[in-house]
Write a structure and sequence with these properties.
Layout: H1 2-39, H2 47-54, E1 59-60, E2 63-64, H3 65-81, H4 92-128, H5 133-151, H6 158-179, H7 181-185, H8 207-218, E3 222-225, H9 230-239, H10 241-246, E4 249-251, H11 261-265, E5 275-278, E6 281-284, H12 289-296
Parallel strand pairs: 3-4
Antiparallel strand pairs: 1-2, 3-5, 5-6
Length: 306
């Protein structure tokens, strides 16, 4: 009995520090990915990570999913350390009040994070069918924080705690399914076809972009791409939605829509995505529209929007 009480006191004493450490690691990881999405090249260290963040599930309300993960971890970190920053000898009442308020909030947030992570793990396994170490790590972080919060506090009413957890879990999964409903329903113009299509193009095309796209198609230029490739999405964003439809794009990913993997593999010049084939020459990487106009001998309007 004495050993059990000592172990209980240990987890109660260090639970907030453990949650804070896990939340800090999660915030650093998601913050790094978010900065890369906003200010860098948007590339993840692994192909699986690229596929997830470039998929329709990688964006929420037009913002990268990692941003919301960063906010969740940051909130958990703040709630975990807030009482610890108060000197108990000088202001014991304030510290006690913060502990009383933050414990249930930490439990509710951890519950929401676990449920959402579980949904994403299902998508990862059955929809994207890839392995993303960052995603799996984040799910394990959420599960660990949930367990520590649950065991690291002396809860007065476990029944009420379970009731609140069920309510939050139901609300979280309902909201998640509602947010991703357009994906599950097939919101793209080719949604009735099998295969992944990647995130939607959100920019509009101008006359110059459409004219360049038509010119590239007329001369037989081809863009070899993969639906999960962030640079391919960036290239399409430069053209805009209307012009992208006019491009001759070859999907190289095996699980992409209208995949032509065999054709892509037959061309050793393709070393990455996107790769442009123009007049028999190959040009890897995202190209500016002015550069494509120059390479293809385009003589139309050049007042490109981007």
């Amino acid at each position: 009995m004495r050993r059990r009480r000592q172990e209980s006191r240990w987890i109660h004493r260090w639970s907030r520090w453990l949650v804070a450490g896990i939340a800090l690691m999660g915030a650093l990881g998601t913050g790094y990915l978010t900065l890369g999405k906003f200010f860098g090249d948007g590339t993840c260290p692994t192909e699986g990570c690229d596929r997830v963040l470039s998929s329709p599930w990688g964006t929420v309300f037009g913002l990268p999913l990692t941003l919301f993960g960063f906010l969740a971890y940051g909130t958990m970190l703040g709630m975990a350390v807030a009482p610890l920053l108060i000197n108990a000898d000088q202001n014991k009442a304030l510290r006690q009040k913060l502990e009383t308020w933050t414990w249930p909030l930490m439990f509710l947030l951890a519950t929401a994070m676990v449920v959402f992570s579980g949904y994403l793990m299902t998508v990862l396994a059955f929809e994207l069918q890839t392995f993303c170490p960052y995603c799996v790590g984040s799910a394990l972080f959420a599960l660990a924080m949930f367990g520590i919060v649950l065991l690291g506090n002396r809860w007065d009413d476990l029944g009420q705690l379970a009731f609140m957890g069920i309510i939050v879990a139901v609300l979280t999964i309902t909201a998640t399914l509602a947010i991703y409903a357009p994906i599950n329903a097939g919101s793209s113009p080719n949604g009735d076809l099998a295969g992944q299509v990647g995130p939607p193009i959100t920019t509009a095309s101008g006359p110059a972009e459409v004219a360049l796209a038509n010119h590239l198609t007329d001369i037989g230029a081809v863009m070899y791409a993969a639906w999960w490739c962030p640079h391919c999405h960036d290239q399409k964003q430069l053209f805009g939605a209307e012009a992208t439809q006019a491009l001759n794009t070859v999907e190289c990913a095996e699980d992409g829509q209208n995949s032509q993997t065999a054709l892509c593999r037959s061309k050793p010049e393709i070393t990455g995505f996107p790769s442009w084939e123009i007049n028999g020459e190959f040009y890897p990487g995202t190209q500016s529209l002015a550069r494509l106009a120059e390479l293809s001998g385009y003589t139309g309007p050049t007042d490109f929007r981007r």
